[in-house]
Amino acid sequence: MVLTGEIHITYGIYRKMALSSYGIRPTIGRALPLAFLVIGAVQTLIAENPDPPFLRMGVFFLVIPAFFELMVLISWALRHQAYAQPFRYEFGATGMTERTATGRTDLPWTDVTRVDRWPSTWIIHFRGGRYLRVPRKALAPADRRTLNEFFLANPAVFG
């Protein structure tokens, strides 16, 4: 198996990759204020209390998704020069290689501790607490399926 891909990482792709690395927290951060705002609106409509606490909490919790978006924006501002050149990925039977404008990273599969499969990104964790984020758009659709099947074939490593 040798799969190759290349992608120019824009802010939109970077944002999806970065938010994926936070796990489910951004999703909860977006859902929580909406839930409080809906409950607060219903309370305002059917209750005699003109200032329900859920409405105030919903407005307060709008800070959570704004925090995640701000973190991504700051991270992009600090690193966007590194994304000026395309990223190149190569996946083989023994490991993967990522080539960027700043260098090359070789990662043997034996060093991989976990692979998180998100809709737009694979997050490949390896020893030492480091990880690589690989946008799925870097590969052709058939290659995405092949790589996903490769990860699923060894659930002990690729979870």
**Quaternary class:** single chain
Give the count of helical stretches: 6
* Mean pLDDT score: 86
Helix content: 40-55%
How does the major sheet shape up? 4 strands, antiparallel
The tally of beta strands, per DSSP, is: 7
Separation of termini? Answer: 20 Å
| Share of β-strand residues | 25-35%
Helix and strand pattern:
EHHHHEEEEEEHH
Structural class category:
alpha+beta
Shape annotation = elongated
The parts where pLDDT drops under 50 for at least 5 residues are none
Going across the major beta sheet, what is the strand order? 1-2-3-4
Radius of gyration: 20 Å
Short structural description:
The protein is an alpha+beta fold and 159 residues long. It has helices spanning 11-21, 25-46, 53-61, 63-79, 141-153, 155-158; strands spanning 3-7, 87-91, 95-100, 103-108, 112-117, 121-126, 130-135.
Short key terms for the protein model shown above:
7 strands; 3-stranded antiparallel β-sheet; alpha+beta; 4-stranded antiparallel β-sheet
